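forwarding from the other thread:

> can someone predict this with adenosine-5'-diphosphate?

sure thing
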Amino acid sequence: MADRDRGILFVISGPSGAGKGTVRKEVFRHLDGLSFSISCTTRAPRPGERDGVDYRFIPRESFLKKVESGDFLEWAEVHGNLYGTLWSDVNENLEIGKDVVLEIDVQGALQVMDKCDDLVSIFLCPPSTEELERRLRARGSEDEDTIALRLKNALGEMAEIDKYDHVVINDDLNRAVEEMERIVALYRNRDKGDLA
Ligand code: ADP
Ligand code: 5GP
């Protein structure tokens, strides 16, 4: 029997530049009852990013203290910076019945799959490597070395695609957003009617 009082944990991951942030923000504009888990990171904010909204930007030392204290559901070094999801962020929202969305890298998603029985994992896949490269350049937030590192890491990340419950190809943005929303609705309805 599904626990109807508890929210559902959705994990969106995939290579950097695939469009996770873009798709997630659109889904949040359309659907109620979702809570975005704001990750901690040691990377510097990009122009326009806000502390406590996009990320919790913290020094490496504070991040490592949280690792020691066991505060993270998952954490990983991604492209040279540390990123992590706080247990408290996830549990507090699930407990009040909110569905929680994690937007994290593949290493982190694999950790969550190991630790949590009940989650819905979604791999957001770029339509091609060429398009991924184009998007990373178009975003204009990384230098050439960082773009090269992100593209190299993308190959390893793509190799884990079979471990996910769902794969969404982010070719056309609206189509990908609709598909993501259908997945959310599918699990919400399943929980409501306990059809699973
Ligand atoms: P991620 O969060 O996976 O690193 P972003 O959401 O930052 O990726 O997207 C990377 C870049 O690609 C951004 O400039 C974004 O506007 C663009 N983008 C995202 N989805 C699409 C799409 N379907 N078609 C074209 N460009 C896209
Ligand atoms: P960016 O620096 O582009 O914001 O993020 C780089 C990568 O780190 C992206 O793939 C993003 O999804 C991932 N990321 C963001 N937050 C977390 C987190 O809390 N944990 C993990 N493992 N990865 C994260």
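The mean pLDDT is 93. thats all i got for now
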